[in-house]
Design a protein that fits this description.
It comes from Amycolatopsis saalfeldensis. With about 180 residues, the chain is an all-alpha fold. It folds into two domains: about 110 residues, RNA polymerase sigma factor, region 2, helix turn helix motif (Rna Polymerase Sigma Factor, Chain: A); about 70 residues, Orthogonal Bundle (Arc Repressor Mutant, subunit A), CATH 1.10.10.
């Protein structure tokens, strides 16, 4: 009989159980996080093959490295941890592609409804800062999202967004100035 994790187990508990080799906990973690992760990756990469490879590499890394997750006690969440792994894997995939050809194009979609991460950020930082973020030009908000929310370096952001590093630095500076002005 297959052990099913309790519905009330949070993602951090599932990762800790995965670290002990609990396959059912890993499957539940995957079930809960993979749809969100796939959507988030597709917003950054239009190539479904790359997204599928990154998903596979990410969850393999989760299975192998679940014991290294330090948890909410260290200020991180399991969802944030899996996104960090996926973002790094996506950057690696872009680098591999760039070595052999041009990187896949980034998805350029006119967003009608706010993304879940934008809503979460607005709820976390409050209306005043959230409004300032929403007022930023999309290309500036995209840079802040990659560097601040996703924790990527300038180089990783440049690879992820298919931009020169100098452009990323310039846009990051413009975004900081615009945020400072909006919040003063």
């Amino acid at each position: 009989m297959k052990h099913k994790p309790p519905a009330e187990a949070d993602e951090e508990q599932l990762v800790r159980r995965t670290a002990r080799g609990d396959r059912a906990a890993f499957e539940e973690f995957y079930r809960r996080t993979s749809p969100w992760l796939a959507v988030r990756l597709r917003r950054r990469c239009a190539d479904e093959q790359v997204v599928a490879e990154v998903m596979q590499e990410t969850y393999l890394a989760v299975w192998r490295a679940a014991g290294s997750f330090s948890g909410a006690a260290a200020g991180g969440t399991a969802v944030g941890w899996v996104w960090t792994i996926a973002a790094r894997r996506l950057v690696d995939a872009f680098r591999r592609r760039a070595h052999h050809a041009q990187p896949p194009p980034a998805v350029q979609v006119a967003v009608v409804a706010p993304a879940a991460e934008e809503e979460a950020l607005a709820a976390t930082v409050g209306d005043y800062v959230g409004n300032a973020l929403r007022a930023l030009a999309p290309e500036l908000r995209q840079i802040l999202q990659a560097m601040v929310l996703d924790g990527l370096s300038v180089r990783e952001t440049a690879v992820l967004l298919g931009l020169p590093e100098g452009t990323v630095k310039t846009r990051a500076r413009r975004a900081r100035i615009a945020m400072r002005e909006a919040l003063s």
